[in-house]
Amino acid sequence: MSSALSPLMSSVLDAVKAIILTMHQEDFSSSAVPDPGKESQCSLYMRELQEFVSRCQADYLSRYECQDFIYDSIKPIACRCVELFVRHASLIRPLGEGGKMRLAADFAQMELAISPFCRKVSDLGNHYKLLRAFRPLLFQNAEHISKSQAIGDIIPHSTILHFLFARAPQEMKSPHQSADWSISRYSQWLEDHPSEKDRLTLIKGALEGYVNQMKSRQAREFAEIYPIMLDLLQKGLQTCS
Questions:
Q1: Is 64 left (phi over 0), alpha (psi -120 to 50) or beta?
Q2: Backbone phi, then psi, for 133, in 5-degree steps?
Q3: 1 pLDDT band (50/70/90 cuts)?
Q4: How far apart are CA 1 and CA 230, in angstroms?
Q5: Average pLDDT in the 105-121 region?
Q6: In which element (H, E) is residue 178 found?
Q7: β partners of residue 155
Q8: Whole-angstrom distance, CA of residue 70 vs CA of residue 90
Q9: pLDDT of amino acid 62
Q10: Would you tell me which of 65, 80, 99, 123 could form a disulfide with 28, CB atoms 3.0–4.6 Å apart?
């Protein structure tokens, strides 16, 4: 049964990856905050993801009698869905105040999106905790973010650092920008390098590139966020050693 399901599961995961990647085709730079009386609408890619998952459940997964086996088989995809969503959410740049509100709505809707893939979203364990822990950080400043108790155990240092690049000045390039890669290529690199040490090493190179750039300009000081990011990087590398 497992081998029979494998092509279907692989196709579902490929589609999920492609849909989440389109997040970067949307504009999260808006500084306009919705009216307090209006609920923030989720993004187009999130609605597409919800429709796709519901369709998968209705057209394919529901036809199997052994639902316990189906849930066990689809659970890893639900976990990967959360992992990919948080990864790409952390890479969004620029991210304005209005964009934060919409992204927060996306985080809430993500739980609904993956619910057909599990009995309860909380059954996803650490991935569920990751989804819940990251959302509040959207509205915190860099210093508060760096002190989050979730960093390390629930949210990888590399993910937090990706997120902080979005709050940095433009001259501090994100890792994929420093490497002159597209977001999709960088995401594939992250897929091929699951080691947190590898990821932090690449981020370290991006920060060093920023330092060298500022020195060449004979800048008198670095961005306020730089020491916060450097401290997080060092802590992350220490946990990897």
A1: beta
A2: -75, -30
A3: low
A4: 49
A5: 94
A6: helix 175-178
A7: 151
A8: 31
A9: 84
A10: 99
Task: Give the pLDDT score at 5.
Answer: 80
- As a whole number of angstroms, the distance between CA 134 and CA 145 comes to 10
Q: Which string of b and e fits 83-92 if b means at least 16 CB within 10 Å?
A: bbbbbbbbbb
Q: For 150-195, what is each residue's pLDDT tens digit?
A: 999 999 999 999 999 999 999 999 999 999 999 999 999 999 999 9
Amino acid identity, residue 193?
H
**Token digits of residue 183:** 């977001």
Report pTM.
0.93
**How many other CB atoms are there within 10 angstroms of residue 216's CB atom?**
8
Alpha-carbon distance 160 to 126, whole Å? 16
Identify the three-state secondary structure at position 151.
Answer: strand
Angle between helices 183-192 and 2-21 (to 10 degrees): 140
State whether residue 103 is helix, strand or coil.
helix
| Least confident residue range of 34-48, 146-160, 190-204 | 34-48
Average confidence score pLDDT of the chain: 92
